[in-house]
């Protein structure tokens, strides 16, 4: 419904959403196990089969987006470990390899994936949700933060962003569930009684992946972060974007995460 605009760029791929559910059912409103918990069984195998994914964590669950043209490879890759269903007219219908065998090509072994640089700003973040009926009460403030807040500081000499004070704000509305990621300073601008977080109220630190825009064609970027964190049993909240990928980890574990990723970088050289 959005009119064409010179200011809006649209990727040519159509994406499908995969939701990984434990034991065939997911209780409403349950907390997700984290992207790292599905790394070995979903993310890494797809990377090995040269399937590019976008990762979107929310307060309620995690979603993996794959390009529609890659669906046959996705089904063949995951069918051995998962029962796979597609949604038709609101109903979940089982999918078999035979349903998507037409046009399936066994993927070529991928080249060694590029290990992108990772950076960790000092900013502390909160992962929050809001009851849908209270959203109007903070709508004006949301618009102000999204569109009118100051841009992150840039170093005029180098043309780079000051990563000590990175600006990051994420808002998603999926099937009525709202998820928000904001820095701790921005959170103070909102009414505390309307923003809901986990009982521990933990703060998160960010690992940002990429030294330049990543695009959508490369595979293995999510696996680069998720696989070592999964091996160390460290949970992560992950958001892919066109320019960079972002993994949020509990603040108390950031030193271990940086060490693990540095070791990964050194071993991949």
From TrEMBL:
Record domain Cytosolic arginine sensor for mTORC1 subunit 1/2 ACT-like: where? 116-199
Q: Which first-to-last residue range defines the signal peptide?
A: none
Q: Single Gene Ontology BP term?
A: negative regulation of TORC1 signaling
Which keywords does this Swiss-Prot/TrEMBL entry list? Cytoplasm, Phosphoprotein, Ubl conjugation
This molecule's function is given as:
Functions as an intracellular arginine sensor within the amino acid-sensing branch of the TORC1 signaling pathway. As a homodimer or a heterodimer with CASTOR2, binds and inhibits the GATOR subcomplex GATOR2 and thereby mTORC1. Binding of arginine to CASTOR1 allosterically disrupts the interaction of CASTOR1-containing dimers with GATOR2 which can in turn activate mTORC1 and the TORC1 signaling pathway.
Per UniProt, residues of the CASTOR ACT domain are 11-78, 201-262
Single GO MF annotation: identical protein binding
One annotated Gene Ontology cellular component of this protein: cytosol
Top-rank taxon of the source lineage equals: Eukaryota
Gene encoding this polypeptide?
Castor1
Pfam annotation, one family: ACT_7
| Entry similarity comment | Belongs to the GATS family.
Q: Which InterPro entries match?
A: ACT-like_dom_sf, CASTOR1_ACT-like, CASTOR_ACT_dom, CASTOR_fam, CASTOR_mTORC1
Q: Specify the species.
A: Peucedramus taeniatus
The entry describes its oligomerization and partners as: Forms homodimers and heterodimers with CASTOR2. Interacts with the GATOR2 complex which is composed of MIOS, SEC13, SEH1L, WDR24 and WDR59; the interaction is negatively regulated by arginine. Interacts with TM4SF5; the interaction is positively regulated by leucine and is negatively regulated by arginine.
Q: What is the lineage of its organism?
A: Eukaryota, Metazoa, Chordata, Craniata, Vertebrata
Q: What is its main location?
A: cytoplasm
Protein name, as recorded: Cytosolic arginine sensor for mTORC1 subunit 1
Compartments, as annotated in UniProt: Cytoplasm, Cytosol
């Amino acid at each position: 419904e959005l009119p064409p605009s010179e200011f809006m760029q649209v990727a040519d791929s159509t994406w499908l959403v995969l939701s990984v559910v434990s034991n065939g059912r997911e209780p409403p409103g349950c907390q997700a196990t984290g992207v790292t918990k599905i790394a070995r069984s979903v993310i890494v195998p797809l990377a090995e089969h040269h399937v590019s994914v976008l990762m979107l964590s929310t307060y309620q669950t995690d979603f993996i987006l794959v390009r529609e043209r890659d669906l046959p490879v996705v089904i063949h890759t995951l069918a051995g470990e998962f029962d796979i269903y597609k949604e038709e007219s609101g109903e979940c219908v089982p999918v078999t390899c035979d349903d998507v065998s037409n046009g399936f090509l066994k993927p070529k072994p991928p080249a060694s994936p590029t290990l992108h640089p990772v950076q960790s700003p000092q900013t502390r973040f909160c992962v929050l949700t809001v009851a849908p009926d209270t959203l109007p009460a903070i709508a004006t403030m949301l618009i102000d933060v999204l569109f009118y807040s100051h841009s992150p500081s840039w170093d005029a000499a180098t043309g780079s962003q000051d990563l000590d004070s990175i600006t990051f704000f994420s808002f998603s509305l999926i099937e009525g569930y709202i998820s928000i990621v904001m820095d701790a300073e921005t959170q103070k601008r909102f009414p505390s009684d309307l923003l809901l977080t986990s009982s521990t109220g933990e703060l998160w630190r960010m690992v940002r992946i990429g030294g330049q825009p990543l695009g959508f064609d490369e595979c293995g970027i999510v696996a680069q972060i998720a696989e070592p964190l999964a091996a160390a049993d460290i949970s992560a909240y992950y958001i892919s974007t066109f320019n960079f990928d972002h993994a949020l980890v509990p603040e108390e574990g950031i030193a271990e995460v940086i060490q693990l990723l540095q070791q990964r970088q050194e071993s991949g050289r």
